[in-house]
């Protein structure tokens, strides 16, 4: 079983990760992890934090001579902004004076609920840990997972389909072309004209002191039939992917395949008809199910779309109430992104990579990559003979 934990605060010394259950002999390239961390930091509409941080990963254990050993993998990512917060965020620092205590919860954040839940008179620990800065650690985890999937040919790409009121109309492209066009766009949109309109929308929102959300799509391709299971609720692949995506900060909705669109259509136009040929075996001409039926991958690309709410930290402050004095106030203006949907699509890729790696390890097992690949290839041969 694969599992991981992250630790660390947004302005603490570093973010830490422990990954357990990774098979031995998986090639791990630090440069590949750093590429994913850099992709997360790009995107039109990002805030000043991205000018401070230049994320890179440090490996502390579980990898030797560029390969996993089967032991827990320990990683960390230093926070360069720590230097500005060291006096306050040092774990052994004395409690802050009243001037530094955060007692004013921001609407749309975990501030108030977290302070009440953990009985905290200072909101700082909540906002530090709930911050989307934590996704840097998760992107590193996803990058490790991708390197397990790569020898099996399973790949992942993403692109942005909506920012605010500007949406991409459906455009058929090969998966390679989607990845190429998305990476070439500042907003990760595959249509250059729509990209410009999205950037104009972000600029308009910035001038108004507001923020924007949107929708991104993640595509997982070369997926074998049979990952996940119908036999228990917590083994369904679509449920596992939904949980992974909904755990990303600011994600408020997810759909697979046609998703909500299919709810307005008759079944005769929704379900993917099944065909067979000696050349292709079982196949479908459509993919409205988004690659998953009955909680099991069906061999087609898995298509996931996630909706991200607007960033809740605004330059146009909203009303709130001080938890100590109970006095009303306008929420403080802080350095913030205007739009982080392009970055969220990279986090979505990482969430998908981790979930698929877990599904692969669960189905094919093995303490080493060689054992897992033997099991995988044997299953592929069995499936092709059906």
Automatic annotation (TrEMBL):
<keyword id="KW-0521">NADP</keyword>
<feature type="binding site">
    <location>
        <position position="335"/>
    </location>
    <ligand>
        <name>FMN</name>
    </ligand>
</feature>
<comment type="similarity">
    <text>Belongs to the chorismate synthase family.</text>
</comment>
<feature type="binding site">
    <location>
        <position position="46"/>
    </location>
    <ligand>
        <name>NADP(+)</name>
    </ligand>
</feature>
<keyword id="KW-0285">Flavoprotein</keyword>
<feature type="binding site">
    <location>
        <position position="40"/>
    </location>
    <ligand>
        <name>NADP(+)</name>
    </ligand>
</feature>
<comment type="pathway">
    <text>Metabolic intermediate biosynthesis; chorismate biosynthesis; chorismate from D-erythrose 4-phosphate and phosphoenolpyruvate: step 7/7.</text>
</comment>
<keyword id="KW-0288">FMN</keyword>
<dbReference type="GO" id="GO:0010181">
    <property type="term" value="F:FMN binding"/>
</dbReference>
<feature type="binding site">
    <location>
        <position position="294"/>
    </location>
    <ligand>
        <name>FMN</name>
    </ligand>
</feature>
<keyword id="KW-0456">Lyase</keyword>
<dbReference type="Pfam" id="PF01264">
    <property type="entry name" value="Chorismate_synt"/>
</dbReference>
<dbReference type="InterPro" id="IPR020541">
    <property type="entry name" value="Chorismate_synthase_CS"/>
</dbReference>
<keyword id="KW-0057">Aromatic amino acid biosynthesis</keyword>
<protein>
    <recommendedName>
        <fullName>Chorismate synthase</fullName>
        <ecNumber>4.2.3.5</ecNumber>
    </recommendedName>
</protein>
<dbReference type="GO" id="GO:0009073">
    <property type="term" value="P:aromatic amino acid family biosynthetic process"/>
</dbReference>
<comment type="function">
    <text>This reaction introduces a second double bond into the aromatic ring system.</text>
</comment>
<comment type="subunit">
    <text>Homotetramer.</text>
</comment>
<dbReference type="InterPro" id="IPR035904">
    <property type="entry name" value="Chorismate_synth_AroC_sf"/>
</dbReference>
<feature type="binding site">
    <location>
        <begin position="249"/>
        <end position="250"/>
    </location>
    <ligand>
        <name>FMN</name>
    </ligand>
</feature>
<dbReference type="GO" id="GO:0008652">
    <property type="term" value="P:amino acid biosynthetic process"/>
</dbReference>
<keyword id="KW-0028">Amino-acid biosynthesis</keyword>
<dbReference type="GO" id="GO:0009423">
    <property type="term" value="P:chorismate biosynthetic process"/>
</dbReference>
<dbReference type="InterPro" id="IPR000453">
    <property type="entry name" value="Chorismate_synth"/>
</dbReference>
<dbReference type="GO" id="GO:0004107">
    <property type="term" value="F:chorismate synthase activity"/>
</dbReference>
<feature type="binding site">
    <location>
        <begin position="309"/>
        <end position="313"/>
    </location>
    <ligand>
        <name>FMN</name>
    </ligand>
</feature>
<feature type="binding site">
    <location>
        <begin position="129"/>
        <end position="131"/>
    </location>
    <ligand>
        <name>FMN</name>
    </ligand>
</feature>
<keyword id="KW-0274">FAD</keyword>
<dbReference type="GO" id="GO:0005829">
    <property type="term" value="C:cytosol"/>
</dbReference>
